[in-house]
Amino acid sequence: GQSGEPLLGEEELGICTHSCFAEYGDDKEVVIDASASYEPGKECRCSATFQEECVCSLDCLEQDKEDLCIELLGECNCFRSSGGVCECSGFCSSKDVRAEACEAEPGCEWHGSFCQAQRGHVWQQSS
Question: Residue 125: how many CA atoms within 13 Å on its side-chain side?
Answer without folding.
Answer: 9
